[in-house]
Amino acid sequence: MDRSQFLILIDELLELEPGTLKGDELLEGLEEWNSLAVVGYMAMVNEHYGLILSSKRLAACTTVNDLIALTV
């Protein structure tokens, strides 16, 4: 899965229009980024990449790009 496809998955998770997120957005500035989105993100990464993310690694993320970096 490439970066643009992954951004679309995050858009869907946050119930945004596809193509909304570019990567440099601050998570704290996204109204839709909340505890449910965090759990959904962890499940999405597990489903698509087989990764189990620690809450510590996820809490260190400040941008959408940081979220993407967790999968590589």
Major pleated sheet: none
Assign a percent range to the helix content. 40-55%
Q: Categorize the overall geometry.
A: globular
Total count of strands: 0
Strand content: under 5%
> How many distinct folded domains?
1
- List segments where confidence is low: pLDDT < 50 over at least 5 consecutive residues: none
CATH fold-level name: Non-ribosomal Peptide Synthetase Peptidyl Carrier Protein, Chain A
Total helical elements: 4
CATH class: Mainly Alpha
Termini distance? 11 Å
Mean of all residue-level pLDDT scores: 95
> If you compute it from the alpha carbons, what radius of gyration comes out, rounded to the nearest whole angstrom?
11 Å
Tell me which CATH architecture applies here.
Orthogonal Bundle
Structural class: mainly alpha
Identify the CATH homologous superfamily: ACP-like
Order of SSEs? HHHH
